[in-house]
């Protein structure tokens, strides 16, 4: 038994699919994604399982890079639906009492004051459970919904994001913790000496401040980030409390873990206060054969390859519609996008061969093969997770459901009790805020 505790995050989309493009077609999947009760039910399931956080990913456009059209995204249900997360999080907060609640907001298409106020408000209304996933946004479809033709270049996006975080954190800090007085007799509501204009002026933003929301229960909401490039890892080392990764195997994950922890220390922060969590999925069955058959259905029966390529085109900002499914992946294609090259290497390692086709890339995107896949009986899945956790490859996992709500219900019912019995996962919440759950200072 160890004192080190595994962190678990439930990965969600406020729409019709999970990260798996065929999830809506699975026979037992619920299709209540336009109902608040749907999200509240899933969050309560994860809270029952003691998860640190339920987190909602987001994009600010329908996938429209494939074929330069949204038609296939709409036709095959490849994430055409993305609800506004502020409303969804408000409902989830009202339906739960302990689990952390997080959302993606872009530093490219929002403004610092808006984001600072949104997450400070959510932190107060939840009693200290809010988290912000910081993204720079990745494709032209999003840019075109905000009056631009193309998204910013890689380094420009991170320059802007760095300045954005400086402004947001300054706004969160603009109220000192004891600024509120609320003395009815004297009539003093708050101490003006403890509420500060920030007068932030940078290349991208000018913000006077102060924030219109007092200091939050966590001091600052928790920050999540998933940068994997060198620049992304540096950004995460400086700012993130939770870092999401997507490594194809345990050895690569160990190298990434060591590298990221060194970068955190070099940034002057305590590496033990930052959690590194690979995204994974678990397929649990009463027997190994049942679990493997369930995964076969996920891989083969319910995913349309064009739906996968639609999502892949969105993520890589590259139009796969110009290729046939059985076209080989060529050097020219790889040269068109560094993201395609990284994807190709991940699929090549997984399949053990070099002669890949576009269909192979589609299957890869459909099934989240870039992260660990835990398939088997509850004991086997728990053992696979322990191998990563105990082997210094991660501090826990971001679990993405193959279908909803069943994947999370099965994991909570069958795997969580084993992790609890082994002493690596909480049997109950001992604190009230997300920072309490993660062991982070206020």
UniProtKB/TrEMBL annotation:
InterPro entries documented for this protein: Diverse_substr_monoxygenases, Luciferase-like_dom, Luciferase-like_sf, NTA_MOA
Residue span(s) of domain Luciferase-like: 34-389
Organism superkingdom: Bacteria
Pfam families to which the protein is assigned, alphabetical: Bac_luciferase
Keywords associated with the record: Flavoprotein, FMN, Monooxygenase, Oxidoreductase
Family that this chain belongs to: Belongs to the NtaA/SnaA/DszA monooxygenase family.
Protein name per its UniProtKB record: LLM class flavin-dependent oxidoreductase
Organism of derivation: Pseudonocardia eucalypti
């Amino acid at each position: 038994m160890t004192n080190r505790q595994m962190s678990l995050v439930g990965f969600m989309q406020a729409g019709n699919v999970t990260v798996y493009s065929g999830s809506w077609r699975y026979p037992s999947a619920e299709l209540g994604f336009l109902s608040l009760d749907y999200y509240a039910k899933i969050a309560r399931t994860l809270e029952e399982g003691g998860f640190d956080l339920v987190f909602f990913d987001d994009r600010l456009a329908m996938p429209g890079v494939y074929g330069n059209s949204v038609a296939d995204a709409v036709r095959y249900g490849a994430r055409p639906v993305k609800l506004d997360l502020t409303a969804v999080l408000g409902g989830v907060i009202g339906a739960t009492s302990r689990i952390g609640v997080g959302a993606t907001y872009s530093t490219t298409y929002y403004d610092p004051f808006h984001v600072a106020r949104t997450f400070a408000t959510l932190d107060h209304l939840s009693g200290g459970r809010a988290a912000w996933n910081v993204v720079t946004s990745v494709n032209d479809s999003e840019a075109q919904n905000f009056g631009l033709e193309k998204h910013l270049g890689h380094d420009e996006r991170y320059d802007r994001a760095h300045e954005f975080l400086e402004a947001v954190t300054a706004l969160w800090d603009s109220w000192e913790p004891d600024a509120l007085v609320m003395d009815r007799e004297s009539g003093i509501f708050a101490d003006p000496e403890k509420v500060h204009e920030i007068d932030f002026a940078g290349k991208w933003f000018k913000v006077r401040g102060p924030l219109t929301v007092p200091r939050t229960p966590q001091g600052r909401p928790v920050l999540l980030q998933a940068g994997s490039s060198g620049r992304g890892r540096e950004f995460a080392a400086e700012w993130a409390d939770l870092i999401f990764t997507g490594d194809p195997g345990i050895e690569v994950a160990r190298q990434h873990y060591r590298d990221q922890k060194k970068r955190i220390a070099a940034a002057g922060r305590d590496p033990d206060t930052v959690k590194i969590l690979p995204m994974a999925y678990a397929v649990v069955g009463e027997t190994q054969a049942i679990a493997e058959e369930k995964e076969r259905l996920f891989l083969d029966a319910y995913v349309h390859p064009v739906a996968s390529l639609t999502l892949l085109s969105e993520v890589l900002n590259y139009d796969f519609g110009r290729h046939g499914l059985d076209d080989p992946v060529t050097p020219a294609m790889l040269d068109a996008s560094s993201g395609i090259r990284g994807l190709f290497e991940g699929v090549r390692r997984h399949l053990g061969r070099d002669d890949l086709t576009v269909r192979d890339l589609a299957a890869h995107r459909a099934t989240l093969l870039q992260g660990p896949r835990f398939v088997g009986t509850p004991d086997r899945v728990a053992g696979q997770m322990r191998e990563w956790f105990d082997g210094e490859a991660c501090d826990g996992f971001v679990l993405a459901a193959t279908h909803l709500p069943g994947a999370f219900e099965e994991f909570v019912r069958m795997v969580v009790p084993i992790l609890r019995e082994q002493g690596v996962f909480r049997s109950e919440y001992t604190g009230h805020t997300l920072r309490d759950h993660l062991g982070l200072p206020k």
